[in-house]
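Okay, any thoughts on this one?
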Amino acid sequence: MGKIYIETYGCAVNKGDSEIMKGLLKEAGFSLAKPEEAEIGIINTCVVKESTEKRMIHRIKTLEERFRDKLIVAGCMPLTEYGKLKKLTSASFLGAKSVNRIAEVVRSVKMGKRIEVLEGNGIKLCKPRVRENPVIGIVQISEGCLSKCSFCITKYARGNLISYPAEKIVSEIKAAKKSGCKEFWITSQDNGCYGFDSGTNLPELLKRVLKEVKGKYFIRTGMMNPQHVKKILGGLLDVYKDERVFKFLHIPVQSGSDSVLRRMKRGYKVKEFAQIVKRFRKEFPEITVWTDMIVGFPGETERDFSKSLELLKEIKPDFTNISRFSSMRGTEASEMKQLPSEIKKERSRKMFELTNKISLKQNEKWLNWSGKMLLDEYNKAKRTWIGRNFAYKPVVIKGKHSRGEFVNVKIIKAEKTHLFGKVVKK
């Protein structure tokens, strides 16, 4: 029926959306192809920050030169930047919540029509998929969130929280496991508020999954806002005791200053964030902690920034995703007085310098550790395998192996982003 090229940017939810789009298109009779061979192009966009949006605009222009009127812009951008896109391109649009209608949109574009499908609330579970990685199952548990962060544009694309039924989530994981998946990414805009709209919560969901899905596998619980984690902390600590749950916590703090957090409308205080991390570390000393920081938010003083650095020194996250603040049009933060770019640049440099040192020291603690890990990625260029141990630490090894294999390793080297190991006998 036609060859389709799909290009994907952004978070795990976007990656999962593209897997579903590919699956639905194959089911409808289309085939997937390289850009030079394809008849229709699809770009699944992300607009989490200004630099990303600029990259999206560049890619849309480039792809439009190749596909002309046979280009579809999907993802968050059609809803968050509709007016800008209309002026920029003659492409068709598919909203972030409308991926289940991709075959309908592609058929229309193939017939020479320009189409916009922007709304929809179809559950993105139990759909045909073409997985990017055959051993990793991306499992979206909800759409939207309950927060009102003053800097966030994604809310305009994903909307308010709609939690998916637990039985559908369990069915998705069972089917994915049967197809060969051994690692499941529980994902959404904010896993922490799952079920708050339907009388349940994330710990209850995870307990049900662990009870009903038998066998050997790992669950990675994705990003959770501290605002909601504090309400379910006891249940989370309990469910994390299961050996099938990666000892991994992604909890974005964004700032070490309460005054900045108030302007961000994050819904928690620095002390509450720190207490959550300390509770997890007390229960699971080797847990991997990821966090996010925004530097140069409007009104951030030198004192505010110093507090962020002090918090990082105290918490010692294994990885920190640092964003230099850029205002997104239409958000509350875009109306605030912005800091000069040179201040944001210098603060970003200082924070990167600190977090790189922290990440290396955290990884060095794993030297000489021995244990089991799951191989989930192969680097063709370097001819190396990457696996994850129980704490979701990435470990690089050499040798002949297969994706989805469990191997025993000993850590012999540590860098700031990866550990390096050698295969050993039990």
Summary: The chain has a mean pLDDT of 95. The radius of gyration is 22 Å. The CA atoms of residues 96 and 179 lie 26 Å apart. DSSP finds 13 helices and 19 strands in the chain.
